[in-house]
Amino acid sequence: MSASASPVLPPLDGSLSLIPGLVDFHAESNSTSPFFVFPFPDLSSDTLGSISFLEFAQATHRVAHSFRPGRKGEEGAVIAIIVNCDTLLYHALVAGLIRAGLVPFPMSPRNSVPAIASLMEHTSCHHIVSQPTFAPFTDAVRESLPSGFAMHVDDLPALTDVFPTLAPSFDPPRAVPDPYPPPACAASPSDIVLYLHSSGSTGFPKPIPHTHTTILHWCRMPIFVESRRKAIRWGCMALPPFHVMGLCSQLYAPLLSGQPTSLFPPRAIVSAPPVVPTPQNTIETARKTGCTAIESVPAFVEAWSQNEDDAKYLASLQALIFAGGPLSRANGEKLVDKGVRLLACYGATEFGLVTCVFDDGVEEPSPIGKTRADWEWMQLPRECMPRWVPQGDGTFELQMLTCETHQPCIENLPNGERGFATSDLWEPHPTKPGLWRIVGRADDVIVLGSGEKTVPILQENHIGVHPWVAGAVMFGRGYQQV
User: Fold this and answer.
1) In a designed cystine with 130, which of 134, 147, 148, 222 is the match (CB 3.0 to 4.6 A)?
2) Beta strand pairing status for 103-106 and 78-81?
3) In CATH, which of 2.10.110.10, 3.40.630.10, 3.40.50.12780, 1.20.1740.10 is domain 20-214?
4) What 3-state DSSP class applies to 254?
């Protein structure tokens, strides 16, 4: 199939396994279409490189053979991933481990040693995929685990071993791997596909299990369904692949839509660390790779709003979506005034990306419909069952109730109720029913514009004990620092 032809789209009825079934569908139906596109060989190049759906599928077979030869050993073993590598290798590793019947657990390498040890204990994880540069860190994790808790570290495969077509020279006949043995039986809807972890802003991060059911529910949400209907080519190269935003836009989105995702060039080819994202190299890569929409953290959007050329380019896209934190109203308005289709997106590791997108269909000012001017207001899709709990001050805490079309990954409501209390506070639009805007938190967490979270109580208490200080209050929601 040529890259210019319309891709054959996979069904979302649960008939394909997650994730290998989707990968194999595209390897057969859209084999030569690009899965990832990137400047090649480096950021300064105007030449594009790509990994096709077939090449990505073959990469997952190589990974599976590497970590569980012959499908021998324990089925469903949890494998922690603590690496700093190119995004395309990261997702091949995640998908390949799933193909091997293992349960990948992507972990932020910024976690502390006790946090990693806690995550491993809670998930009975005895294996880590890592790199030599992390050896002192993983040794410290081993020391932090209880006595007798076995831990084995495997090295991350080399990029060119997983994607031999990226090597300076390769032998095409030898580049085709043997098919990995399929599972003996179909997976149960409640089987865990992978783990992600919470932010850890109020304590150690917590493991969040993602089952076949919860991932399938995510895949039917508007951000995926509408993106595939519009054939969106996402530019999300700046997002970390271990984060829910990166996983969704870099791995899930192309598997659901058949459209490529734009990434930074793989730097392991020249034995260099991955590209460090900046607002400038992100938007330059988006330009070069021909993406039609960008998903970003607010901090980058703030920077682009200050540059006329960047704003002009962003206005040519089908959408600029921000998530992970608040965006300043002044800079948001500035971009909208310059013709940028700016949209807020809301979600979490515990329940997915649950806001409608591309829903600002009213071009002229309207007392009812959502317009471009309503960029910071969101509506939840009919697949979800939200409950708005009044706080007595005009704001409402959002709770996501479990229903047939949306099951949160974890449930934390009291008295046996099924659902997830988000601790996020919202206010309703004064004149447009169904539109809501997030305004803060029910707990003490401050969400910065970078998407990072901080809990101010310890700092406030520390400052407040000084005899010259009557009281201390930290603030900074939407800013780059407190």
Assistant:
1) 134
2) parallel
3) 3.40.50.12780
4) helix
Q: Do 80 and 129 form a contact (C-beta atoms < 8 A)?
A: yes
The answer to whether the CB of 362 falls within 8 A of the CB of 232 is no
In residues, how long is the chain? Answer: 482
Between the alpha carbon of residue 146 and those of residues 110, 156, 204, 399, the distances in Å are 22, 25, 17, 36
Its pTM stands at: 0.91
Helix H or strand E segment including 398: strand 396-401
| Residue-range domain boundaries for the chain | 20-214, 347-444, 445-482
Q: Residue 133, Cβ neighbours under 10 Å: how many?
A: 11
Please answer whether residues 190 and 214 qualify as being in contact, where contact means their C-beta atoms are separated by less than 8 angstroms.
Answer: no
Residues 194-208: pLDDT tens digits? 999 998 766 789 999
What are 213's strand-pairing partners? none
- Please name which of 13, 206, 40, 10 lies closest in space to residue 107, comparing C-alpha atoms: 206
Q: Which residues contact 194 (CB under 8 A, 6 or more apart)?
A: 94, 98, 103, 104, 105, 106, 210
